[in-house]
Amino acid sequence: MALAIRLARGGAKKRPYYRIVVADSRSRRDGKFIEKIGSYNPMLAKDDENRVQIDLDRVKEWMGKGAKPSDRVARFLEAAGAVEKTVRNNPNKGKPGQKALELIEEKKAKAEAAAEAAKEAEEAAKAAAAAPAEEAPAEEASEEAAAE
């Protein structure tokens, strides 16, 4: 029989209260269990000492018999110092894949090209604005020379 140390929900609607129980892994969440070894009240403040209560001697005994804690119960046991901390998250899982990286690079290239085009257009506009100002005095000078 596979044993699990897990949470069994109790309490009213929107007022949860959990028992930490040892149960057959095939039994229902709130169904039959072998032994109650603690409790968890998420309604209490995180620093409250009554939020999580576990009988660590019974936990060690059941784990010696082959019971495996659920993820949440394992976190409680890690906080209590009964179990060594394990790494749960895979940091590489959240990284973008090959195709996404290619798309990001394409977007960067397009943005750079658009920025360069805008910069060139702005420089051309400045040159165009400066050119008629320079040509106007030259035209006036040529008109004055022709008038004399």
Automatic annotation (TrEMBL):
Pfam family for this entry, one: Ribosomal_S16
In this chain, composition skew of type Basic and acidic residues spans 107-125
What UniProt keywords are attached to this protein's entry? Ribonucleoprotein, Ribosomal protein
Sorted alphabetically, the Gene Ontology BP terms of this entry are: translation
Organism superkingdom: Bacteria
A molecular function GO annotation: structural constituent of ribosome
Acidic residues composition-biased segments: 136-148
Q: Which Gene Ontology terms of cellular component type are present?
A: cytoplasm; small ribosomal subunit
- Segments carrying the region annotation (Disordered) are 107-148
Compositionally biased residues, Low complexity: 126-135
Indicate the family of this protein: Belongs to the bacterial ribosomal protein bS16 family.
Q: What is this protein called?
A: Small ribosomal subunit protein bS16
Q: Which organism is it from?
A: Kordiimonas lacus
Q: What is the lineage of its organism?
A: Bacteria, Pseudomonadati, Pseudomonadota, Alphaproteobacteria, Kordiimonadales
Q: Which gene encodes it?
A: rpsP
